[in-house]
Amino acid sequence: MIEITPMNEDNYKAVAAIEAACFSQPWSEKTFFEELSNPNAHTYLALDSGEAAGFLSVWEICGEVSINNIAVLGKHRRKGIARALLENMFNDLKESESVTLEVRRSNAAAIALYETFGFEKVGERKNFYSQPAEDAVLMTRKL
Fold this sequence. Notes:
Layout: E1 2-6, H1 12-22, H2 29-35, E2 41-48, E3 51-61, E4 64-72, H3 81-92, E5 98-104, H4 108-116, E6 120-129, E7 134-142
Parallel strand pairs: 4-5
Antiparallel strand pairs: 1-2, 2-3, 3-4, 5-7, 6-7
């Protein structure tokens, strides 16, 4: 069973651990702890049968949401966790006007998921990612 909960002082280390396992240049535990006091930051932790499995981090500023990171641990993938995180975010941030994200050009599965939520490709960012170097596809969904 998938449960989505806001990141808090009791679970931010689990979020940081997922970040470290999934990204070549992860945010630190300290960064996630500092996000707890950022009024524009919203981070959601996904639990799969009680086990930390994934997270979604966004900033909401002046009616615009920017997805910073979304990650699901390998052993928990293909269970609908990323979809549940996105659905939760859309339900939680109903007052916003748009949502924007960057995704690696090679991440076809993520791009397909975002398109099912109504995101459209609106541009690209050359050499946005490193380790390995890759362009990003910029995607936006108007709400």
